[in-house]
Amino acid sequence: ELSVSLLAVIVIVCGLALVAVFLFLFWKLCWVPWRNKALSSHSAVLQGEAGCNKESMADKLKDAGAISFLEAAVKISHTSPDIPAEVQMSMREHIMRRTKIQRQTTEPASSTRHISFKRHLPRQMHVSSMDCGMEPPPGAEQPTSIGRIKPELYKQKSVDSEDPKKEAAKTCGKINFTLKYDYENETLTVRILRAFDLPAKDFCGSSDPYVKIYLLPDRKRKFQTRVHRKTLNPTFDESFHFPVPHEELGSRKLHLSVFDFDRFSRHDMIGEVILENLFEASDLSRETSIWKDIQYATTESVDLGEIMFSLCYLPTAGRLTLTVIKCRNLKAMDITGYSDPYVKVSLLCDGRRLKKKKTTIKKNTLNPTYNEAIIFDIPPENMDQVSLLISVMDYDRVGHNEIIGVCRVGVNAEGLGRDHWNEMLAYPRKPIAHWHPLVEWQGRAASFDSQGSCPSPKPPPTP
């Protein structure tokens, strides 16, 4: 009986083992392949949906033509699978090819007259080499840390606060003088009375002031008061006489320069006063007292004269015509008190001189008349990249030609130079003429007739 029961147990255990082996083989052979097949079909469905989304987004990219947003557009989400690399490469090549075709079809054909101008342009200024699509938008904000202190938000802006030049101009004091014109002798009498609240220029807290007097544009005749020692409120009470015809008074300017005398070094300039219209300040028939603020200045300003020219641009022909009309009240550069002026016009592009042209030379005059036209061929698409440097030169037979003064016109110029240029562009095919004041050349002291680029001049002051 014991052996029979033991045999029954062994049979039962073997049967259970066979059943377990059979179930394992069934799961291995049938269940696992079916599950893998289901998963592969599910991934295929997901890839199909991603492909549909990719095609729709590719169509949107074709319409927009935005290459810079390609990387962000091909990503559906962080949970969905990525688009294959082959699809991304094909999309990129297609969009690049379409963009290239659009650029080739929209770029205008240039005239043969402008080939020489384009050859001198810098490489970065060619329109075909510019690719603005890859740059980030200018209005993109930079991430900032929360809680960071910004000092600019706590600055107190005072109502009385001004720039240092204006503050310095307030501390230069005032000057009192009188004007009177003698109609019989045709003489203008300038009487310097007193100065008040001058700044201290010496270490002892005082100054030794005196005044120079000019009647511009004539600088050959000048007068000077006596020096008053150690005072900030000097009383001069001195009169000076300028012979001048009555019809010239309207074009004359009274220039007063206040200096601090120094025995062992160069005299320091305190400031200056320029009275441009004499008839506005006084009727000149009787002696009139005038108070003026002394404007801050470090060097004595020089009146270099003015030049009158007209600008005319023809957009269809791409032709810019500058007509030099005349100059007046030029600075005397020769010993004789005259100059031999001529005008040189330089075409500048990005700080480089592309072309230059000159007028004829007028001998022994400070008020030359030219009426000569200077023409430059400039394509319309390059008008916002160029400027004109007008230089009035004094011709010397021996040595270098000297620069009397310069002015500049163009989009990047300041004051009247920019306004004249914009007015020319606003009224094409119409000559626009203006007077321009000459300013000192801030570059090389010698003539810049040599080939090569020339630096930009100091722009004329804003009128």
Automatic annotation (TrEMBL):
InterPro entries: C2_dom, C2_domain_sf, Synaptotagmin. Its main location: membrane. Keywords: Calcium, Cytoplasmic vesicle, Membrane, Metal-binding, Repeat, Transmembrane, Transmembrane helix. Residues 171-292, 303-436 form the C2 domain. Signal peptide: none annotated. One of its GO terms (molecular function) is SNARE binding. It is found in: Cytoplasmic vesicle, Secretory vesicle membrane. It is a single-pass membrane protein. GO terms for cellular component: exocytic vesicle; plasma membrane; transport vesicle membrane. The keyword rRNA-binding does not apply. The chain crosses the membrane at residues 6-27. The keyword rRNA-binding does not apply. GO terms for biological process: calcium-ion regulated exocytosis. Belongs to the synaptotagmin family. PANTHER family: SYNAPTOTAGMIN (PTHR10024), SYNAPTOTAGMIN-6 (PTHR10024:SF45). This is SYT6 protein. It comes from Ceyx cyanopectus (Indigo-banded kingfisher). The lineage of its organism: Eukaryota, Metazoa, Chordata, Craniata, Vertebrata.
